[in-house]
TrEMBL record:
Pfam families: RibD_C
Domain Bacterial bifunctional deaminase-reductase C-terminal: 111-170
The protein's name: Dihydrofolate reductase family protein
InterPro entries, per the entry: DHFR-like_dom_sf, RibDG_C
Superkingdom of origin: Bacteria
Length: 193
C-alpha cells in the first residue's frame, strides 16, 4: 500500500488560507520560475522546485479533500487536479445535482473510510491528503505517514490552519527533505509513531 501524505502550501505561521478562505500569496511560488510544472505552461517554478514537486506529483494516485475544497473548486469540473487518478471527497452530503457519475470522484463519509477507499484506489502509489480540517482529522486518526509542506514567506496572523482542528501533540521526525526554491521552502517530515 502507498503511503499517506498530508500536503499543502502554508504560511510561516501555519495557515493554508486567510480568514476569507483566500490563499493570498501562498501559490505565488507556482509562478515564480521559468520551468513549466505541468502541460498548461501556466504553472512555472524554479528548476529546484520542479525537480522536487514534479517527482512527488508523478507518484500521487489519489487525493483526499473535504467537501469545502471540492465545492470551492467546483469539483475541478470533474477532472482531478495535477493528473491525479482519483479524488476522494470526505462529506456527509451526496454529490451535487447533475454530477457526472463516471467522473473519478468518490464521496465518502468519514476520514477512516476515505483513507481506506483511497488506498484501495491508489495501490502502491501515494495517497495525498489536502492540508486543513480533513488533513488534521486524518493526522489525529493516526493515518498519516508523512507531512509535506511548501512554506511560503508570508505571515497571515489568522485563518485556516494547516493541521485544522488538531489539538493534541503529534511528533514528527527530523525533516527528510529541506529544499529552497523561489519564494518557497519545501519540507518533508515522517510522522513518528
Amino acid at each position: 500500500m502507498g503511503k499517506v501524505v498530508l500536503y499543502g502550501s502554508v504560511s510561516v505561521d501555519g495557515f493554508v488560507a486567510d480568514e476569507n478562505d483566500q490563499p493570498g500569496p501562498l501559490f505565488d511560488w507556482l509562478s515564480s520560475g521559468d520551468v513549466p510544472l505541468d502541460e498548461s505552461g501556466v504553472v512555472r517554478v524554479s528548476q529546484t522546485s520542479y525537480d522536487h514537486t514534479r517527482a512527488y506529483w508523478d507518484r500521487i494516485g489519489v487525493t483526499i479533500c473535504g467537501r469545502h475544497v471540492f465545492d470551492m473548486t467546483d469539483g475541478w469540473d470533474g477532472k482531478p487536479p495535477s493528473g491525479v487518478g482519483h479524488v476522494v471527497v470526505v462529506t456527509h452530503r451526496p454529490p451535487p445535482d447533475g454530477w457526472d457519475p463516471t467522473a473519478p470522484f468518490h464521496f465518502v463519509d468519514g476520514v477512516e473510510a476515505a483513507v481506506a477507499r483511497a488506498q484501495e484506489l491508489a495501490g502502491d502509489r501515494i495517497v495525498e491528503v489536502a492540508a486543513g480540517d480533513v488533513g488534521g482529522q486524518v493526522l489525529a486518526a493516526g493515518l498519516v505517514d508523512e507531512v509535506r509542506m511548501d512554506v511560503v514567506p508570508v505571515v497571515f496572523g489568522s485563518g485556516k490552519r494547516f493541521f485544522g482542528p488538531v489539538d493534541a501533540q503529534h511528533l514528527l521526525a527530523d525533516p527528510d527533505v529541506v529544499i529552497r526554491g523561489n519564494r518557497v521552502l519545501h519540507l518533508t517530515y515522517r510522522v513518528r509513531r
